[in-house]
Amino acid sequence: MSLTVGTEVLVLPLNRKGRIVAVGGKGRYRVALGAVTSWHAESELSEVAGGRRRAKAQAAPQPIRGAVQSERQPEAAGLRTLDLHGLTVEEALAKLGSTLDQAIRAGLDGVEIIHGISGGRLRGAVHKYLRDVPSVVRFGLDPRNPGVTKVWF
Questions:
Q1: Do residues 52 and 13 lie in contact, with contact meaning Cβ atoms separated by under 8 Å?
Q2: Percentage helix, strand, coil, to 5, in the chain?
Q3: Same domain? 78 vs 148
């Protein structure tokens, strides 16, 4: 299945309808779900039967204005991991908000947050913060390291 910009799709993991706004490499599509956009693999999408297309079927993929692809920009690679060791909860949440904003603007599909496992206070604050971020599709502890939370946009 080859999807084009403007195609109405169902995002299967979220069970929500959206519209493709950009086509990326390696079978990835940027889907607008209301005011939020997120990247999804083709396997996570299903074309809505009878869905209208706003763009012509032969239209070339449109670049996202202001977005930076991490494969092209090495500085975006530094946004993939955030280490919060040694910070207070307030400092950590401020740094987390800033990093999430930069990562989303850079077009990344996710980040890893290193919060450690000592008392769990920082992890709890991070998870509470992530629940309220509309661009976060899902998050969870890394099964290999409970001191790390993986976040997907």
A1: no
A2: 25, 30, 45
A3: yes
